[in-house]
Structures are given as C-alpha cells and as structure tokens.
Design a protein that fits this description.
By secondary structure, the protein is an alpha/beta fold.
Length: about 375
Amino acid sequence: MAAFPFQIAATDGRARTGVLSTPRGDIRTPAFMPVGTAGTVKALTVEQVAATGADILLGNTYHLMLRPTAERVSRLGGLHRFMRWEKPILTDSGGFQVMSLSNIAKVTEESVTFQSHLDGSRHVLTPERSIEIQADLLGADIVMQLDELVALPATGDRAAEAMRRSARWGERSKAAFGHRDAQALFGIQQGGVDEALRSESARRLIETGYDGYAIGGLAVGEGHQAMVEVLDFAPAQLPADRPRYLMGVGKPIDLVEAVYRGVDMFDCVLPTRSGRHGQAWTWDGAINLKNARFAEDDSPLDASSDVSASRDYSKAYLHHLVKSQEILGQVLLSWHNLAFFQSLMSELRAAISEGRLEAFRQAFASRHFASDTSA
C-alpha cells in the first residue's frame, strides 16, 4: 500500500487531475514544484512562493549535502524548519548534479565518487547515503531513488547500461528507505528515447514497487520534439493509480504537452532563472524586459493576477529595474513567473475537470508559437 493516497478526480483523454495527500498538506495535480536548490527559491521568501499557489517545493540533495551539509540541517530541525516552509518538500537524489556539475572520479556499481564544485573535496554518494540524506537528515516528504543520468544523444548500449544500473540502485534505495507512513519514495524511469528500454525500466520499477514514478533522463539535450515523442509512450508504461513526475521539464509548452499525455508533476528552475535575466513568461509567450519597446509601456504584466508583482508594476518600471540591474527587478520577475506557472497549472486542472483540455491545448499552442516575443 502506497504511503500517500492519490485520488484522481477527473480525466480528459490521457490527462488527469487529482490530489496527492500528504501529512503536510494536499498537492493538487497537475502540480508545478518551484525549485528551492539550496534551501531557498532564489530571490523569494516562502510567503511569496506560497502566495503564487505552490503546494510543494523541491530541495536539492547535492547542494544541501555540500553546504551547509545535511547533518547541519538535521541538527537545526530539518529542511522544513530550516527554510520555514511548512508544506510538502520533494528532494531529488543528487544524481543529476553529480553528473552535470562535478568532476566525476568514478561511477561503479557501488557508488558515485565525485569532487565538490565548491572546493574540490571528495565525496561518495550511494543509494543508501542518498536516502539517508533525503529522508533522515533533510526530512523530505517525497524522496527520490538515486539513478544514473545519461546526457542525450546516447548510444543504445550506454542508455541500457545506465537504465539497468538505475533499476538496481532503485532496489537498494527501496531497501534503505523501508516502510514509512509519513514519507514516500519515488522510482525513476530511464532508457533515453528508446521505447523498449523505457518499457523494461518501467517493468523493473513496478516489480520493486514505489509510491510514485518519475520519468527521468529528458530535457538533457534531446529537444522538444524528441521529448514529446517519448511522452507519447512513457507515461502510459507507468502505473495509472500513482503520480507520474516528469523531472526537470519546465517550458510552458512542454508542461501543456506533458499534461496532455498523462503527467502529473513537474519541476524546473526556468521561472526563477528567467526572472533573474529579465525574462517574463506570459500567456502569449516569453517577453524580454530589457527590450527598448517596454521603456514607456505603462501596462502591467498581468492586470488580472492576484500577485502584486504581476498586477501592480508597469513594464516600463520593470524595464528600468532590469536595465539598472536593480535586485528588485529580479525579485518581481521571479515572483511573476512563478505565479504564471501556477496559474497555468490551475487552468490545466480546470480544463481537465471540464473536459476541454484539447481546446485549451490548441489555443495555448497557437498563442505560444504565433508570437516569438522573447527577443
């Protein structure tokens, strides 16, 4: 029996809307998780993040284990208390950052040995250690198995090797996690863009048994079309009665297409990273506030928004802040972008509930692709 009840309220084609219930609160799905890499969603307070409608945050195992260290966070009461976020937290396993940020010394069947990108110190990450950090020291509500990520494009042999090692590491993660009533463990499907490898991965994950299932190894260089083609089959290979989480994917058009294909949960640094670089996401695509055409534009980013950053500040003022490199510009645009992403999730949930997702999807795509306003 899974740790957290997952109630699907409505379906529309392959898409679903529902609620994942945790002891720290309900997560409405489809859900977008803001990324709190080092115990903070960059540039924002937890009150601002909550005001956007976020039900859950993501914390980063790799960064927290290096600084301030997972042991220190534990001594200070766990990650929720440390960062003052009372709602659910999902932590990633650390595997992605180990593969992408550090100088890897060695990947073996037993562990990954790597050097910190901060000071070059040597660290060893095993499936068991990843679970200890996430579940016992940080105190995450949703814990991810350790997996091996392969950048795409990759050969079939390399993708198969990493997928099978990830499956074995998943079994070790499950053994280390044991049974917990107040925490959940998610397994991660791998296999690159190969349908047969993805199918084998899903079968092995289901045999092990997890509280939820993630689709990993996408948004790593394969491009939008290749990702969508994988999502044509990958979600349906995973259990329909448990949450499906697409890791690290966050462009709005990608979110809509993934929800359409049966995905329930997402995370990405895109909203805050874009905000720090002067970019705002809107219903008509992304706009760059550095652009001179906004210098005297007195309109807000979204007059109908409940969030002050979107509703109460003119594009001209935001343009000025960005051009002047004022910190407030980064705060307001990050806040607006997170609010937009949560509004998108809310609109998707409503469209599924009302059986009009296809119309929403078509309208969204036409507006998204019609105006290339990011320049």
